[in-house]
């Protein structure tokens, strides 16, 4: 008979439990989840990321496994343990096993005025949406966050992003009192203040005043006050355990459902996991853990137990590493225990580090890092064991000093999934050769991701050499080849391959080198030896189709076209018998042209004012646009005008892969700019720039990079973004993958192209200026030159004879290649 | 007893100067489509122009290069690489394109299409 499993609550821990249970493929269970919120589990750890783009979907955790019945908006309101049913709005649901995963609620201290309009907590997506609506409603200028812990600093960041002058009020004498000590707190405070946030430590809030229109003043217990328009209470969390007492379940000393090391309550049919569980294990008695990693571990334990296993909880690791307002903070092990400490404070760079060792200085007990947490993965993995190197060497600024190989095999590399170094080295010995492979084999790196640098080190220590060689002819990566060509002023493939490679190249390195030469030298791409480097598309300035004919795409900047030009395209298509189709990039593709027809077709198009659309090149394709304020009643900026300006600026720019862009005239985003390599969305005050998105095989939303930028600042930033990409990306690596692979990600990109941390910006600007200044239409140049035109023949000994093997049939009134029994292989051998 | 006579008919297709190094051209000889290549060192090769995997007459438009010591061309459609000397596909076992005799007489390039 089918057993019924009911899960109360649908947050991150419940999600993990459902996945862990499904993975064990236990037969004979039906699973039901009752959720209070109106959406499935989302990533609450990254909650603040919602302020980057207001996209709740990006935080979605993937939904319940197949077969699980999810009932949203239906909180469990009571448990009848005798009859084994839970109560909810729709009535009773029977269970054989009940897993409580009700999580926490925000704690609001009992101060006067806490219920005034304009006072918020910071716990759910709904909380954040309400905060945003209030803070952006106009006239709201000053905000205070009550609580200087982890959540409080997250909330402060959110207020800052909303344009609010922000204060943080912490009763303890330092920020993040649970995670860092006095020295670390002082360094952290300086970082936060440098960002323009006012920090009040050692001050309590005595109450809030205001009226029905909202909060007006925060009163301090030392007699002072602060005028405020918005308050966020981030004073901690409390377990959601209100189901315990009516059901006769025991609560822990600080709340929560009391459970033993198997996560069972006193009732063997009722379990509790995550923040609502008061776990008794080792000496910790009834402790609620407000971190996701212990919750995940509990989820695994219960999934195991329910399917016949014997897992138990070890004492949870409360190590954390976060980035708060751009400042790295890490705390691991027991940093406040007794022992010997090693403390490094660098006031110049704002780095604080403390290691706590046993009295014999042999075992690492814990530590705190502020400002630079790059040593965290190694240190956390060394907890409870000998230090892999002298303390000062470990804390030295990131070089390659990290002595990864000396970690003991039992050291936990990934705390989210309890993966040890032995697990990882076994997987490497078993054939895993990269980080994605290790993620699949061991799950390491799939939680918070902080151990990924360590995984890379273990791969390197395991002798796995990640080849960056482009192909058999060059041992260099594309980026290295770019530098070689630029620095040594190399002008031809022959020069390059004879000095820096072997053989005569192939279909991989030749187009790559052609693209680099085009980017560095900005010339016509088909003269001299360069002609032999190009793929057939670049060689014939058209796109090859499966029957060997080509398609033609004239540029239609921004998708704006006059009726006269539309008529010309129609006439050309009619006269040459071309199949026509509107593309996804707001232009018109003409299919079925034979090689020898291309110059005649382009003659007509160039005469009518068209130019190459570079649909054939690894180059800028289109800058799509919505109609914008010119016509649209919602538009706030001239999106078409900007799209045309950008498309004309970057046309012909050769890149590692194709580039797409779009401009939307308002936040409704009709141009789908966020699916582009660079997308622009108009705001009331300027433009928001998003970078590194794409559609395609693995869609990725672009990341917000500039807010309310002027057109000038926008274009300067895109110039640098594109040139830095052209210089440093791998072959066929689109901007999304390029950014994801970049050490330091978006922050690094910002440091390089906004703050000029590498001193490259002047060079990038000059390189783009050269590109813009030297652009010439490839088809116009081709038609001017008989020698260039001489390539466009069907047969060298019968130039005017069409390929006799090309034949068409008619479908929906247009001609298409004959659908013969032609076998089609996708991808080939590579 | 009969004696088999091999008649080789050479057909001039273009001047040697017309061939760019490492770039092919297509030629039409007695209804047969050929892809003709001149390598960087000046060697000439002629193979069938039809991509045997995709079925289109496109081999002359592939990128010429080397794999190890073999002179090669890659199909422009799906990039399978063929040995110009033997016509053998180096990426898919059992696939090959025909090869044809080719020679240079003065500045003239000639091919022979064997009509067996």
Automatic annotation (TrEMBL), chain A:
Listed CDD domains: NirB_Fer2_BFD-like_2
Binding site for siroheme: 670
Cofactor note: Binds 1 siroheme per subunit. Binds 1 [4Fe-4S] cluster per subunit.
Molecular-function annotations in GO: 2 iron, 2 sulfur cluster binding; 4 iron, 4 sulfur cluster binding; flavin adenine dinucleotide binding; heme binding; metal ion binding; NADP binding; nitrite reductase activity; sulfite reductase (ferredoxin) activity
Domain NADH-rubredoxin oxidoreductase C-terminal: 319-380
Positions annotated to bind [4Fe-4S] cluster: 626, 632, 666, 670
EC primary class: oxidoreductase
One family name in Pfam for this protein: Pyr_redox_2
Pathway(s) per entry: Nitrogen metabolism; nitrate reduction (assimilation)
Residue ranges of every copy of the Nitrite/Sulfite reductase ferredoxin-like domain listed in the record: 544-606
One GO process term, biological-process aspect: nitrate assimilation
Domain Nitrite/sulphite reductase 4Fe-4S: 617-753
Cofactors: FAD; siroheme; [2Fe-2S] cluster; [4Fe-4S] cluster
BFD-like [2Fe-2S]-binding domain ranges (all copies): 413-460
Domain FAD/NAD(P)-binding residue range list: 6-277
Key words, A-Z: 2Fe-2S, 4Fe-4S, FAD, Flavoprotein, Heme, Iron, Iron-sulfur, Metal-binding, Nitrate assimilation, Oxidoreductase, Thioether bond
Catalytic activity of the protein: hydrogen sulfide + 6 oxidized [2Fe-2S]-[ferredoxin] + 3 H2O = sulfite + 6 reduced [2Fe-2S]-[ferredoxin] + 7 H(+)
Highest taxon, organism lineage: Bacteria
Family assignment from sequence similarity: Belongs to the nitrite and sulfite reductase 4Fe-4S domain family.
Function: Catalyzes the reduction of sulfite to sulfide, a step in the biosynthesis of sulfur-containing amino acids and cofactors.
Subunit structure: Homodimer which associates with NirD.
Protein name per the record: assimilatory sulfite reductase (ferredoxin)
TrEMBL record, chain B:
Biological process, per Gene Ontology: nitrate assimilation
Keyword annotations: 2Fe-2S, Iron, Iron-sulfur, Metal-binding, Nitrate assimilation, Oxidoreductase
Domain Rieske residue range list: 11-111
Tagged with keyword Metal-binding: yes
Residues that span the membrane, as ranges: none
InterPro entries named in the record: NirD, Rieske-like_NirD, Rieske_2Fe-2S, Rieske_2Fe-2S_sf
MF terms in GO: 2 iron, 2 sulfur cluster binding; metal ion binding; monooxygenase activity; nitrite reductase [NAD(P)H] activity; oxidoreductase activity, acting on paired donors, with incorporation or reduction of molecular oxygen
NCBIfam families: nirD_assim_sml (TIGR02378)
PANTHER family cross-referenced by the UniProt entry: NITRITE REDUCTASE (NADH) SMALL SUBUNIT, PTHR40562
Name recorded for this polypeptide: Nitrite reductase small subunit
Classification of source organism: Bacteria, Bacillati, Actinomycetota, Actinomycetes, Micromonosporales
Gene that produces this protein: nasD
């Amino acid at each position: 008979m089918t057993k019924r499993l009911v899960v109360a609550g649908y947050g991150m821990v419940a999600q993990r439990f459902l996945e862990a249970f499904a993975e064990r493929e236990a037969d004979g269970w039906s699973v039901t989840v009752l959720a209070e919120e109106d959406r499935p589990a989302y990533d609450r750890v990254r909650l603040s990321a919602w302020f980057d783009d207001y996209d709740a979907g990006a935080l979605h955790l993937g939904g319940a496994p197949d077969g699980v019945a999810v009932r949203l908006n239906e909180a469990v309101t009571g448990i009848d343990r005798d009859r084994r049913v839970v109560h909810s709005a729709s009535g009773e649901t029977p269970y054989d096993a009940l897993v409580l995963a009700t999580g926490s609620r925000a704690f609001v201290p009992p101060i006067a005025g806490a219920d005034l309009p304009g006072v918020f907590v910071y716990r759910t997506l709904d909380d954040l949406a309400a905060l945003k609506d209030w803070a952006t409603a106009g006239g709201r200028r000053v905000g205070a966050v009550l609580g200087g812990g982890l959540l409080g600093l997250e909330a402060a960041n959110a207020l800052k992003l909303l344009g609010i002058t922000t204060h943080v009020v912490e009763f303890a004498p330092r920020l993040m009192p649970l995670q860092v000590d006095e020295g670390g707190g002082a360094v952290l405070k300086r970082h936060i203040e440098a960002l323009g946030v006012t920090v009040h430590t050692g001050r309590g809030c005595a109450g809030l005043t205001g009226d029905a229109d909202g909060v007006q003043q925060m009163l301090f217990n030392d007699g002072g006050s602060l005028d405020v328009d918005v308050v966020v209470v981030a004073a901690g969390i409390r377990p959601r355990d209100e189901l315990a007492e009516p059901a006769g379940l025991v609560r822990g000393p600080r709340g929560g459902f009391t459970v033993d090391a198997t996560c069972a309550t006193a009732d063997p049919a009722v379990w509790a996991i995550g923040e609502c569980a008061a776990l008794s294990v080792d000496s910790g008695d009834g402790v609620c853990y407000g971190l996701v990693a212990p919750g995940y571990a509990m989820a695994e334990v219960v999934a195991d137990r329910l399917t016949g296993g014997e897992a138990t909880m070890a004492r949870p690791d409360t190590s954390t590493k976060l980035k708060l307002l751009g400042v790295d903070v890490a705390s691991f092990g027991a940093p406040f225990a007794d022992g010997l400490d090693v403390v490094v404070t660098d006031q110049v760079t704002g780095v604080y580090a403390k290691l706590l060792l046993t009295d014999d200085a042999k075992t690492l007990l814990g530590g705190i890092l502020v400002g630079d947490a790059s040593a965290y993965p190694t240190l956390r993995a060394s907890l409870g064991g000998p230090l892999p190197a002298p303390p000062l060497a470990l804390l030295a600024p990131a070089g390659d000093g990290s002595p990864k190989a000396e970690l003991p095999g039992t050291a936990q590399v990934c705390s989210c999934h309890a993966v040890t170094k032995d697990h990882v080295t076994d997987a490497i010995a078993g054939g895993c050769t990269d980080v994605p492979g290790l993620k699949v084999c061991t799950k390491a790196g799939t939680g918070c991701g902080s151990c990924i640098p360590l995984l890379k080190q273990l791969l390197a220590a395991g002798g796995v050499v990640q080849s960056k060689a482009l192909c058999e002819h060059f041992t260099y990566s594309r980026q290295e080849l770019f530098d070689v060509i630029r620095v040594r002023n190399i002008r031809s493939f022959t020069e390059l391959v004879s000095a820096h490679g072997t053989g005569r190249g192939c279909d991989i390195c030749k187009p790559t080198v052609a693209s680099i030469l085009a980017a560095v030298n900005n010339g016509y791409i088909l003269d001299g030896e360069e002609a032999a480097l190009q793929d057939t598309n670049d060689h014939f300035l058209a796109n090859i189709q499966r029957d060997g004919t080509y398609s033609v795409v004239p540029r239609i900047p921004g998708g704006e076209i006059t009726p006269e030009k539309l008529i010309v395209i129609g006439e050309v298509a009619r006269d040459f018998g071309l199949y026509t189709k509107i593309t996804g990039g707001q232009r018109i593709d003409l299919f079925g042209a034979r090689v020898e027809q291309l110059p005649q077709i382009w003659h007509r198009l160039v005469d009518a004012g068209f130019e190459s659309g570079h649909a054939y090149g690894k180059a800028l394709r289109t800058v799509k646009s919505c109609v914008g304020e010119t016509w649209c009643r919602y538009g706030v900026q001239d999106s078409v005008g900007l799209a045309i300006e950008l498309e004309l600026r970057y046309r012909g720019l050769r890149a590692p892969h194709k580039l797409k862009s779009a401009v939307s005239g308002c936040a409704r985003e009709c141009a789908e700019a966020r699916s582009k390599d660079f997308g622009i969305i108009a705001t009331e005050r300027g433009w928001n720039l998003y970078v590194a998105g794409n559609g395609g095989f693995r869609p990725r939303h672009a990341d917000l990079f500039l807010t309310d930028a002027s057109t000038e600042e926008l274009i300067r930033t895109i110039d640098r973004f594109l040139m830095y990409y052209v210089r440093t990306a791998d072959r066929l690596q689109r901007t999304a993958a390029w950014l994801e692979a970049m050490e330091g990600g978006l922050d690094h990109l910002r440091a390089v192209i906004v703050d000029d941390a590498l001193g490259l910006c002047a060079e990038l600007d000059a390189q783009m200026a050269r590109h813009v200044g030297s652009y010439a239409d490839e088809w116009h140049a081709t038609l001017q030159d008989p020698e260039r035109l001489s390539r466009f023949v069907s047969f060298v000994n019968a130039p005017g004879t069409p390929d006799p093997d090309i034949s068409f049939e008619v479908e929906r009134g247009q001609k298409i290649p004959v659908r013969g029994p032609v076998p089609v292989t996708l991808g080939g051998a590579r | 007893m009969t004696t088999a006579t091999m008649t080789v008919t050479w057909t001039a297709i273009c001047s040697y100067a017309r061939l760019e190094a490492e770039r092919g051209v297509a030629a039409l000889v007695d209804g047969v489509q050929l892809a003709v290549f001149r390598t960087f060192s000046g060697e000439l090769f002629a193979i069938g122009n039809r991509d045997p995997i995709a079925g289109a007459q496109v081999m002359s438009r592939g990128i010429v290069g080397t794999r190890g010591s073999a002179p090669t061309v890659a199909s422009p459609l799906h990039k399978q690489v063929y040995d110009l000397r033997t016509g053998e596909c180096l990426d898919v076992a059992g696939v090959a394109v025909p090869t044809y005799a080719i020679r240079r007489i003065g500045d003239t390039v000639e091919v022979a299409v064997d009509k067996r």
